[in-house]
Amino acid sequence: MRPILYHKLGNFELWFLSDGELWLDGGSMFGIVPRPLWSKLAIPDEQNRVRLGLNPLLIRARNHLVLIETGIDRKADEKFRRIYGLSDTNPLLGQLALLGVEPQDISLVVHTHLHFDHAGLNTRWVEGRLRPTFPKARHIVQKQELEDALHPHERSQASYRLENVEPLLEEGCFEVVEGEAEILPGLQVLPAPGHTLGMQVVELASEGQNLAYTGDLVALSAQAPLLYIPAFDLYPMTSLQTRKRLYERWLEGRYLLCFTHEPGHPLGRLMRTEKGYQAEPVYL
Ligand SMILES: [Zn+2]
């Protein structure tokens, strides 16, 4: 398991956490890119799966502890865990405990979207009932994303699990936003449609430094080239437009990027080269 990385970005304290790993079909991760190209960047196993990380981010901002994403759902059955190569327990809770953080200390959770590999620890079993894992947190999500998670269509229903959504809804934990929104001073969400219609990225800005948490817009540094869009994306042409818009912003503001599914070191920066956009790792 990757150790916790700590970084101070202006007034924010950041801990780049890990919720372990997940294995997904390599072809699906790289869309129209031929295997001879992508397999140099992410080495497939005998089932053609590539290894992905799960990289939630913990932020201390004034008197708030904010969690960006809650890792992957390990409540499902053994077959589900085998398909995605999952361990039995959620490393995320152990990492929070190492930092002395109890689930009830989290006051805000920000969701890029509600797929099971991003919102999996929203709930856990407590005395035979599914309860919110972070009971005191407001859970920020785009209105569109919550609607789609509650009423998924055939193409997206395997990606959402109601058990990560309904208990929070019943207990009034969600706070929906529509479009761009400032959640705390210097912490904002921006719509990033494509992977899903309601996906958002999370940005931090403090003392001239910027960071973006990429969600599944560009989940791996190897996916940075403009057309390396996963086949999982529901609206790939929208992903392309969103990438063009946000890439320019991230280049101009010299954003540090946290790649949501990077299996190794999760931090990087975009570059524009003669071959197009690429990402380089950043070691702090
Ligand atoms: Zn994902």
UniProtKB/TrEMBL annotation:
Residues in Metallo-beta-lactamase domain copies: 53-261
SUPFAM superfamilies: Metallo-hydrolase/oxidoreductase
Entry's EC annotation: 3.1.1.-
Keywords for the protein's UniProt record, in alphabetical order: Hydrolase, Metal-binding, Zinc
GO molecular function: hydrolase activity
Pfam family, one: Lactamase_B
Full protein name: Quorum-quenching lactonase YtnP
Record organism: Meiothermus hypogaeus
